[in-house]
Amino acid sequence: MSAAPVSPGDGTSASAGSKHEIVYEAIRRRILDGSYGPGHRLVLDRIAREFDVSPVPVREAVRRLEAQGYVDFQRNVGARVATFDEAQFAETTEVLAILEGAATALAAPRMRKSDLTAARRSNARLNALLGDFDPIEFSRENRAFHFVFYDRCPNRQVRALVEQQWAKLDTIRRSSFIYVPGRARSSVAEHEQIIRLVEKGATASAIESATRAHKLHTIQALAAASAARTTRKPPEVR
Amino acid sequence: MSAAPVSPGDGTSASAGSKHEIVYEAIRRRILDGSYGPGHRLVLDRIAREFDVSPVPVREAVRRLEAQGYVDFQRNVGARVATFDEAQFAETTEVLAILEGAATALAAPRMRKSDLTAARRSNARLNALLGDFDPIEFSRENRAFHFVFYDRCPNRQVRALVEQQWAKLDTIRRSSFIYVPGRARSSVAEHEQIIRLVEKGATASAIESATRAHKLHTIQALAAASAARTTRKPPEVR
DNA sequence: CGCCTCCAAATCGTATATGATTTCGAGTCT
DNA sequence: AGACTCGAAATCATATACGATTTGGAGGCG
Fold first, then answer.
1. What residue spans define the domains of chain A?
2. For chain A, N or C: smaller number of CB within 10 Å?
3. Does the distance separating the beta carbons of A158 and B91 come in below 8 Å?
4. pLDDT mean over B19-38
5. Cα B161 to Cα B37: distance, rounded to the nearest angstrom
6. How far apart are CA B123 and CA A144, in angstroms?
7. For the domain A86-228, what is the CATH superfamily, name and number?
8. How close, in Å, is residue A131 to chain B by CA atoms?
């Protein structure tokens, strides 16, 4: 189970131990775990005092987060955690569908028996979670499942991008809770199908489209559910 | 012809006019146009003096570049322009193949007649350039060709990623010059094929795989050419 | 009563200053 | 000669200081 719990250092780390790095990691974690929800304002001086550092390293940290799309920054105004609307969520999911499909297909030939076993075990846990449904736990395990595959993807760039996009989605999942009734169950079934395809050495193309479809179903389910609760607006953060 | 010449502000801009922004753009441009080749060392104080600013905004600029993968940064040592080896180049091209395939397929249904005309015109220019071959000009026009499609891709995230990856590749193309003899000609032919597929309303899947294959051919050609010049090592920068 | 003007607090942007770390070479020992 | 030690120069990391800009509201005006 090496699947990164929340995505470790996102790859582009460098200067461990420096104050700017500490602050960067801390803010990033808070964004990802929801302590800093979308729209949350990041006041540099305040953060600096909290971490007992000067504002300079805080600014550097925020710049990095800005460049990665975690926060929006406005000159002379400040930074705030990026806000996602449903459209952006859907778009990012689509990106992930594309990348995951490719990543899984690329990984397939490199999957060992033990990997498939791990995947099945993971999917079994997901199945077990279907009982009293815990969205957070399910999401975590779901991630773990998919990363069994990505870990074997030989293309580092693809892997990095997948992790990045996944992290982005996590930001949102925390706040506005995405939960589509029947989705989880069919998701588990699709997982098993993907495992089988890999197992029997299906073509890359077959594996890719199955994985992509799997993800796209989530968008569709979401869109349907969203259409259902007609008038209700998504929670706006100011 | 709205295809960004070198990719304008990469999307995640924010604070125009600030010194940090000026420096950021300047350094970025230099990396992209090759003034700062891979491995080039970025000494903060020196850059600060050159732009007549303090080192603080320079650091911010560099942090952003770091987060985007343009430069590598080592604590207490400094920043240098990211170095790409051939493997990374291939991996990034593969990413681009995946994304471009998807982007083009997504764009296809939205392409208007005028867009196809523009694409053909662009491809004609590419064809004309086949004579006395100018790699830079060809590369520019090639980019323009593909962006005719991406501009119609409805998924912003995908578009942003494509631009980002393309910029990354540009960094490399400037320095170590990638030129594979017969490739350009077949490239033009493949372009025409893609146009036809879109024109006749082929399935998304058909368009996607054609586009992806088009890009992957470049990797293959490169690999072949690279295998040919056996002993010669790629230019190392220190 | 609502709109506009002006001021002060909050916060950002950048410069300057200083301590810390790395690098690299001169000098020394074996 | 080669390896090691020490130290100065270069450069990074961070703190502090201060001017600049935005924001929100008090008070005045129509």
1. 19-81, 86-228
2. C
3. yes
4. 93
5. 23
6. 45
7. GntR ligand-binding domain-like (1.20.120.530)
8. 35
The mean pLDDT of B191-212, rounded to a whole number, is 97
Is there a contact between A155 and B68 if contact means CB atoms under 8 Å apart? no
Give the range among A146-155, A225-234, B175-184, B201-210 with minimum mean pLDDT. A225-234
Query: Is A183's CB less than 7 Å from nucleic acid strand C?
Result: no
Residue A90 has pLDDT above 50, yes or no: yes
Q: Report the nearest residue to nucleotide D12, CA vs C1'.
A: B76
B13 touches chain A (CB under 8 A): no
* CATH 1.10.10.10 at B19-81, yes or no: yes
B84 versus B214: the higher-pLDDT residue is: B214
Give the whole-angstrom CA distance, residue A98 versus residue B105: 12
B85 touches chain A (CB under 8 A): no
> Measured in angstroms, what separates residue A82's CA from nucleotide D4's C1'?
54
DSSP result, B151-199 = TT-S-HHHHHHHHHHHHHHHHHHHHS----TTHHHHHHHHHHHHHHHHH
Q: Which residues of A touch B88 (CB under 8 A)?
A: 156-157
> Is residue B14 within 8 angstroms of chain A, CB to CB?
yes
β-pairing, B78-81 with B41-42? Answer: antiparallel
